Q: What sequence folds into this?
C-alpha cells in the first residue's frame, strides 16, 4: 500500500520508500534525480517525507526513483 503524496504540478517521477515489513510504503513527487520540492508539499506530506527519511534502514528501505503512474 502506498501513501501517495500529491503536488500541484505533475511529476513524471516519484521517490518511493518501500516498507521492510508489512507497513505502509511512501511515494513523493520528484525529478529524475530524486530531488523533491519541499515548498510544494503540504505540511502533512512534508512530515511524512521527513518520517520516511528518518526510518530508512529501520522500517523503510532506501528510496528508489520510479516512473509515476500517469492517469
A:
Amino acid at each position: 500500500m502506498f501513501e501517495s503524496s500529491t503536488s500541484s504540478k505533475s511529476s513524471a517521477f516519484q521517490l518511493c520508500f518501500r516498507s521492510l515489513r508489512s507497513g505502509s510504503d511512501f511515494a513523493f513527487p520528484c525529478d529524475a534525480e530524486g530531488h523533491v520540492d519541499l515548498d510544494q508539499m503540504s505540511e502533512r506530506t512534508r512530515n511524512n517525507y521527513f518520517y520516511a527519511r528518518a526510518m530508512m534502514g529501520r522500517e523503510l528501505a532506501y528510496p528508489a526513483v520510479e516512473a509515476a503512474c500517469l492517469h
About this structure: Helices lie at 43-54.
